[in-house]
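Service request form, structural biology core

Requester: graduate student, group of Dr. S.
Request type: structure prediction, single chain
Budget code: on file
Notes: please return the result as C-alpha cells.

Sequence provided:
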Amino acid sequence: MSAVWQAENCLMCGYFSLILTEYTMQTTSHKYLIAYDISDHKRLYQAHKKVEAFAIGGQKSFYECWLTEHEMMKFKQEVNALIDPCDDRVFIFRIPDNVEPMLFGKAQLQSIFPFMLV
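Core staff response, request fulfilled:
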C-alpha cells in the first residue's frame, strides 16, 4: 500500500494541510496453504471463519488461500491474537507462483480469475 501526499498552505489563514493525491494498494495475490490445529471449539470456529474468508479450496483444517501481502499481514495479526500459543498451532506455507500441483483422484484446479455475481 502506498500513498502520495501533497502539502498545501492556505495563504489567507495560514492553515497547513496535507492532501492525498494518489493512493495505490497492492493487489497481487499469492497462494498459501494454511493449516491449523486449534484445541478450543470457540477459537476453532473463529479461526475457521477467518481462513474460510480467503479459501478457494480446502478440507477440514487445511486450506488453499489467495491473499495479498496486506491481507496476509492482517490475517497473521488477527490469528495470532486469537490463538492460545500454548495449545494451538497455525501453519502458513506460501506456494511459489510457478509451481504446478500434481492432481490425483477427483482433484481439480480452482479458478482464480475474478468473477461477478449478478
